[in-house]
Each structure stands twice: as C-alpha cells, then as structure tokens.
Amino acid sequence: MNSLDLQVVQQAQQWLEQGQSVCLCTVLSTYGSAPRGPGAMLVALADGRFCGSLSGGCVEDDFLERLGRNEFGPDNQVVRYGEGGLAPSLKLPCGGVLDVLVEQFVPGCEALEHFSLMLQALQGQQRIIRTVSLDTLNRTLDVCSTQDSTVHVSDRQIMIRIGAARRLLIAGLSPVAEFCASFAVSLGYEVIICDPRPELLAGFNLEGVKVIEQLPATFIANGGCHASTAVVALTHDPRLDDLTLLEAVRTPAFYIGAMGSQRTSEKRLERVRRIGGLDDETIGRISAPVGLRLGSKTPAEIALAVMADIVRVGNGVGRGAL
Question: CA of 191: how far to CAs of 169, 231, 239, 263, in Å?
Fold first, then answer.
C-alpha cells in the first residue's frame, strides 16, 4: 500500500470524529495505463474537501461535483470512468477505464472502529480483508493472513486486502539521507528518519518525513519495522550503522542496506557477523555497499541508486533481470 493511503484513513477518522459523514472511494481496477493502482483510496466530504487520489487528477473534479450533488446515494456501489462509464463524455487521458468502489460512512463508533482497524493494517500491525456487499450498506472486516491480490470482485461482493504501507526507515541524517527521503516521499513511501543527534536534526524539515530523535536501533527494537519496511544506514558511523544492522536483521524488513565502499562494507559485515553471531543467510540479507552500481558520485546520485535498488527488491525483480 502507498503511504498516501495512511493519510486518507487518518483524515477520514478526523472528519468522523468531528461529526461529518465521509465518502470512501477505492480503486478496484484499471484498464490501460494508470497512475494509481487497485486498492488506492480517496476520502471526501460533500463540500468538496478530499484527501487522496484516484487517478492522479483526471477524474477527481468530476467525481467531487457528482458527490456534491448527492448522485451516488447511501449504498455501496461501483462507478466507472472511461468508455461506457458514468461519465462517457469524460475520456481518461490514458484512454483507459477506471472502476471505483464508493462507500458512505456516517459518524459513530462503528465507522471509527472500521477506520481504526484499517489504520492498524497500514501501520503493519496486521493484515485485514474488507468485504463489501454492493447495493447495500453492509461491509465486514476480518484479519487476513494471505498475500493474494489486493482487490477481488465476485458477483455482488468486493474483497479488499489491506497490508502495511511501504516504509523507508533511514538510520542517521546525512546529505544522502536527505535525498533518499525526498525520493521516497515522491514514490509514496512512509518515510522515517531516526537520529539521536539533535544538532543535526535541528535544521532539517521535509514535508512528509517523520523525524525521530532516537537511536535507530532502539526504534527498530521497539517494533519500528514490518515486512514492508526498507532500512538503510547512511552515516558511515559504526556506532549508528552497526547497531542498526544488528537489529534490522532480526525483523522481517524486506530490504536492509548500509552505505560505504567495498572495503568498508566488507569490514562492517565481518564486524556485524562477529558481534551478532550471525550465519551466512542472515548476513546475506544486508546489501552493502547499498544500492545499484550506477557509478554514482554525488549525494543525489547515490540516493537515486539506493532507492532504485529498494524499488527493485520491493517489486521482486532480480539483479540479473536489469
């Protein structure tokens, strides 16, 4: 899931707590190229305020106008944009078709509990499955352990699986870390920077990045990583990097990396292996030197190589396929 979906759920909770009814929209399927895939969410109010995205901007205005005119009604329903859809005169720039599930939530304990469980899933506490019955007000939410596709449509029911949003945990602030954070935000990651040095953090501020004044290893040990987390140590400081790696390999993080030259990386891995008593399989989870070999020299180029490798692993692409 995309970290933008975290913002959607949090905004929905806030509006519900204020006593406002909300409309939750979920992308079910796309035909043709699309900037937002199945499972992407948007929450909106009848007055036009919204959070999230369905298409990258090409249908939101029309959708919000229809919502303001109360064209959708209270029942769960699917609306289609593109050829043969709700607005056949509105052609998508990609020439495709977009199917969207529309649900209405009224303020109350039931709605708040529903979004609370969704938030827990996006934060990596558990995987859930939402089952929505069309043309009714019925929906259920259950814990789910499978890793199947995000959305499944069968007859008059829609099942949406929700898991953790992709997270990038950056251990230590540095010039490379700043560019990594910026790239990761653009890619839709939830970005967290951990550094116990207040003098470095004082001048850093980047929208969409959470900064925690804490030893990265402590944050990880306290549950800071889930299976959709990438951990990168980018300081060259063994006091930060080594401890980070020792804790990270004990988590289900899908990517663990540390910056440094080939020689520095070999010494670091040997040190971490010895101190942690790690076997070959465990030490093999660490990418060091971190990132793809792009001949990077500047902090921005190094950060690009790091994020490219994280995306590669996250998408299940082997190095040999590049």
Answer: 6, 10, 22, 29
